[in-house]
Amino acid sequence: MKKLFYSLSTLTFYFAAGYEAPKLRQIAEKVAAAGFYVVVPDFFYGDPYLHDMEIPSWLPNHLPAKGCEDARRVVADLKTKGALAVGVAGFCWGGMTVSKMSGYGEIEAAVILHPGPLLEDDIHGNYNYRYVT
């Protein structure tokens, strides 16, 4: 079985551009070309952040805790299908989600790139998400 690389809804330059962001697709394709199985689910369920939205009104419906919950189900599914190792990478919103997910011991690697508004307490498991300006 190939090594598996699981990608949360990894996000690019924008706060939460969603899984269809072109740069995200390019990164996923490069990782897949290196021999990894890449999964990029739509954890925003068709409701990504758009430039004309107010982040404080968008974020409560898209909390990283919910993304973590959804991602844990995907990781469990990958493992029941034979994945020996699952790594998770997240950008911005995805970085906040990866931070939370890494505390469960269900993944073998966690990469946070452009972590969004993370504070030291978030990294240590005190997840009080807030929008930091």
Write the layout of secondary structure elements.
Layout: E1 4-7, H1 22-33, E2 37-39, H2 55-58, H3 64-80, E3 86-91, H4 93-101, E4 109-113, H5 120-123
Parallel strand pairs: 1-2, 1-3, 3-4
Helix pairs in contact: 3-4
How are the strands of the biggest sheet laid out side by side? 2-1-3-4
| Secondary structure: number of strands | 4
Give the overall silhouette. Answer: globular
Low-confidence stretches: 1-15, 129-133
User: What is the rounded Rg?
Assistant: 14 Å
Major sheet details: 4 strands, parallel
Order of helices and strands: EHEHHEHEH
The helical percent reads: 25-40%
Which features does this protein show?
133 residues, alpha/beta, 4 strands, globular
Walk me through the structure.
This protein has 133 residues and is an alpha/beta fold. Helix content is 35%, strand content 14%. The chain contains 5 helices and 4 strands; from the N terminus they run βαβααβαβα. It has a 4-stranded parallel beta sheet, sandwiched between helices. Helix 1 links the parallel strand 1 and strand 2. Helix 3 packs across helix 4. The protein starts with a strand and ends in a 10-residue tail after the last helix.
